[in-house]
Design a protein that fits this description.
Blueprint: E1 2-5, H1 10-21, E2 27-30, H2 38-48, H3 61-66, H4 81-90, E3 99-101, E4 107-109, H5 113-121
C-alpha cells in the first residue's frame, strides 16, 4: 500500500498515525516533492473510480488562478478530463490528500478514520 501525503496536512498525519497503530505495511509518497505524472494520476483515478475534478482542491490559490470554477473553461466531462489531469500534474497542491492505494488494486481518499480503515481492510 502507498499513501500520498503532504506532511503539513493534519489529515495526512492522522492517517499515518492510524496506519502505524494498525501495524500496516505502507510506503509514503510526498507527492509535492515526488510529483505524480499524468499517467500515474490517471491510474489512481481509475483505482478510485473518480474523475480529476472529484479530487481537486478547488479552494487552493492555484485553482483560483487557473479559474477552475469556470465550468465553461474547465468542463467536467470527457472533453475536459485530460486538461484537468494536466493541471493536477502541473500543480500537485491541487490533489486531494491523503490518497491510499490499497493492496487489492483500489484506492481511497483517506480524509477520515473510516476511509483509512476501509483501505486497511482491502
Amino acid at each position: 500500500m502507498e499513501i500520498w501525503i503532504n506532511p503539513a496536512c493534519s489529515k495526512c498525519r492522522s492517517a499515518l498515525t492510524l496506519l502505524d497503530a494498525e501495524g500496516a505495511d505502507y510506503t509514503v509518497r510526498r507527492y509535492l516533492d515526488d510529483v505524480p505524472t499524468e499517467d500515474e494520476i490517471r491510474a489512481v483515478l481509475d483505482r478510485l473510480g473518480l474523475e480529476p475534478w472529484d479530487i481537486t482542491r478547488t479552494q487552493e490559490a492555484a485553482a483560483k488562478e487557473l479559474g477552475l470554477a469556470d465550468r465553461a473553461a474547465w468542463p467536467r466531462d470527457a472533453s475536459g478530463r485530460d486538461r484537468w489531469i494536466g493541471a493536477l500534474a502541473e500543480h500537485p497542491k491541487l490533489i486531494q490528500r491523503p490518497i491510499i492505494t490499497a493492496d487489492d488494486g483500489t484506492a481511497v481518499v483517506a480524509r477520515t478514520e473510516e476511509a483509512v480503515r476501509d483501505a486497511l481492510s482491502r
